[in-house]
Amino acid sequence: MQLIRAKPCNLEPLNKIKTSDMVAISTLSIHAADESHRVSDVTPPINISTTYRYDSDPAKLKTASEIDGLGDDVVYSRLSHHNGVLVEETIGAITKSEAVIYSSGLGAFNAAMAHLNPKKLFIGQAYHGCHGIADIMTRNYGLKQLSLSEEDLKLIEEGDLIHIETPVNPNSWCFDIQKFADLAHEKGAKLLVDSTFAPLQDPFEFGADMVMHSATKYFGGHSDLLAGLLLTKDKEVKKALQLDRVYLGTNIGNLEASLLFRSLKTFELRVKAQSASAEIIAKHLQEKKESLPKLLEVHHSSLQSEAFVAAQLKGIHSPTFSIIVDSAETARLLPSKLKYFYHATSLGGAESLIEWRCMSDVTAPPGLLRISVGLENVDDLIGDLVTALE
Ligand SMILES: Cc1ncc(COP(=O)(O)O)c(C=O)c1O
Q1: Which residues are CB-contacts of 154 (< 8 A; sequence separation ≥ 6)?
Q2: How many domains does the chain divide into?
Q3: 273-330 pLDDT, tens per residue?
Q4: pLDDT of 135-194, one tens digit each?
Q5: Does residue 200 share a domain with residue 304?
């Protein structure tokens, strides 16, 4: 039986873009996977199929030991599907690494822990969900957890893992990636960096062994999909992660992959615009603090002066930052006084969000509000925040 296909791609194959071509991120995010489009549609079709028909020619059938069902060799969507492949190819090109996509950021962290299987985990301030996963591992398998204090880091040994988040949730302060990479590597340990808050930074440049992102945030960018990412420089590690993902059951869904592929086309544009606005707003609030008695502190990497911050972020600060106001009551009220900020958790979307953070994070101080800057006009956002704080 002849399979009836969507209009096949009978165009001349586009010249393959190589990451070594030094092509800019904005171009790669649109064209890096051109060669893998299966049909001539400019926007690749949404595939919702969970399963794929085998070849109708019995002579071409292979056994399970001959096919892995990964990549474009599709068998079943938990293993791999076309839009997931397009997403991995594109993100791999723009991050100059091997990308593995997951159904959420925490799915990615869980997969990193399963793959690296550390003897001890050194973890400090980080997304509360990553602590939650580490706690499950401690409860079930006795994983030893230590902090990032100098005292604790003296105990690092081969086979251990340091996990840092930089800039860190919720206040967007940066940690020195190179310092932690050196500490880990001196002892044969590894460094995992959660780069969610600065999606354009390259932690590999400073020695990270693996990078994770909640792609729900800036890669997705529209508050309409959940996804996670692990990045590695090693093709073998990518393969091992993809094989583990089959049994962890955490591949990205087909529909989410289509949405994410759409989002990638505006990735750099969005992040740069949101980052520029966040820096302007954070600095403006910091300068106006004296005239705004309810505003006690502004936390953002653009207000840090250490040399490593400039080296890591290259002027593209996190589009998310936080403020501390004078009381829990002010923090509870402030979101209701704003016109252009939705009161909601999460970050990275086109619309600005503010969150009284202790509503979703038990470790947050009572006066902390986290602000995710969207794509609205920056003067409108400043006017809105200042009026509410006044
Ligand atoms: C820094 C950071 N890492 C990881 C996660 C988890 O990502 P997800 O919600 O996609 O599982 C989040 C979510 O807010 C986050 O902010």
Answers
A1: none
A2: 2
A3: 999 999 999 999 999 999 999 999 999 999 999 999 999 999 999 999 999 999 999 9
A4: 999 999 999 999 999 999 999 999 999 999 999 999 999 999 999 999 999 999 999 999
A5: no
Shared-domain flag, residues 184 and 219: yes
Helix (H, G, I), strand (E, B) or coil at 370: strand
CATH number of the domain enclosing 297: 3.90.1150.10
| Distance of CA 228 from the midpoint of ligand 1 (Å) | 8
Give the whole-angstrom CA distance, residue 31 versus residue 84. Answer: 16
Strand 295-299 vs strand 161-165: parallel, antiparallel, or unpaired? unpaired
Of the candidates 349, 125, 341, 322, the residue with the CA atom closest to the CA atom of residue 215: 349
Q: Which atom of ligand 1 is nearest to the CA of 106?
A: 11
> Do residues 74 and 172 share a domain?
yes
d(CA 307, CA 299): 17
Kind and range of the H or E run holding 186: helix 177-186
- Identify the residue whose C-alpha is closest to ligand 1 atom 2: 127
Residue type, 26: S
Averaged pLDDT score across all residues of the chain: 94
Domain that residue 157 falls in: 19-264
Provide mean pLDDT across the span 112-122.
Answer: 98
Q: What is the pLDDT of residue 68?
A: 86
Indicate which residue's Cα is closest to atom 7 of ligand 1.
105
**Residues 295 and 222 placed together within one structural domain of the fold:** no
Tokens 């970050």, located at residue? 347
Asked if residue 13 is part of any domain, the answer here is no
Q: Is the preceding omega at residue 170 within 30 degrees of 0, hence cis?
A: yes
* Alpha-carbon separation of residue 191 from 84, 139, 161, 292 (angstroms): 26, 23, 6, 41
CATH number, residue 221: 3.40.640.10
Residues 208 and 347 in one domain: no
Indicate if ligand 1 lies below 6 Å from the C-beta of 127: yes
